[in-house]
Amino acid sequence: MTTYGTFNEPWAAEFAPGTDTLFITEKPGTMKFVDTATGRTGSVTGLPRVDYGGQGGLGEVAFLPSESANEVGRRTIYLSWAEAGEGDTRGAVVGKGTLDCTAGASCNVEGLNVIWRQTPKVTGRGHYSHRIAFSPDENYMFVSSGDRQKLDPAQDLGNTLGTIVRLTLDGEPAPGNPFADRGSPTDEIWSYGHRNTLGLQFDSAGWLWNMEHGPAGGDEVNLIEPGTNYGWPIVSDGEHYDGRDIPDHSTRPEFQPPAIGWTPVIAPGDFIFYNGDAFEDWKGNVLLAGLKTEALIRVAMNGTNPVEVARYPMGNRLREVVEGPDGAIWVLEDREGARLIKLTPS
Predict the structure, then answer these.
(1) CA–CA separation, 301 vs 292, rounded Å?
(2) Which residues touch 275 (CB under 8 Å, ≥6 apart)?
(3) pTM, whole model, 2 decimals?
(4) Under the phi-then-psi rule, with left for phi > 0, alpha for psi from -120 to 50, and beta for the rest, what region is 54?
(5) Fewer CB within 10 Å, N side or C side of the chain?
């Protein structure tokens, strides 16, 4: 374990493809970068105004893998954040711009424009989700849209709360979506019946998976298939925080059950499919950054039948996990003064 500085409520991190530079978003609305080869750090300007509070603020940072280069230079950048609306409402958005790091000491986001908005904006400051994943062919962008703690809208195809949406790289509804003939915003929806998807990743075979927080119990990892209803809030293997029962997945076979679930919850902040060579025995496994568990959790996939195989205590809540270019594993803690830690084999 090697520490590379501390950060203020970090939320997401991503290596610029083809580089050793890791970009880290901080929930209050700032972003930093670390050249992990030299240890040099810097800040990013040109960021949006975010609605900071509760679970809201600056969220995801994502790059197109095809825009790989030997230097950071200029490249497309996608960001997500919580945006204020009229009255006491807010919602998640995704923006697209150009990241310019040619100055060296700092980077700037140019031409950042909102290309997608969660519909509708509602009260509260929870369950934005707003994770981003690109299809392996880079033709499509998938965005997780949380239920915003409103529950029932996750079963209503007339909005995008509690869904995963499939978009073009410019934020338009992707052609061929399962409800493409029903008009906006239903034509964006890829799957629904989700609660709070804080992890969204493709595996090496091209399958899309999500990691979803349950209520009091019932955290899930799901194989995401088009047009499929995952049951929230009608079913869950957890219960409401006030103790009210929720029928288990097994009682309603018309809803897609999780591939793996946890009760008590593990409350992961994000997950990855590990594909590096540094930890050879972990190749193809899922690694989850545990918030409540304060551990890195390893899951063997066994095809599409995942099984937890290990927990590695870290002593603090973990928000983010990233695979480095050399196969090292990078984790970010979840707090003010959170450490960025590089994990390598002993």
Answers:
(1) 22
(2) 204, 283, 284, 323
(3) 0.97
(4) left
(5) C
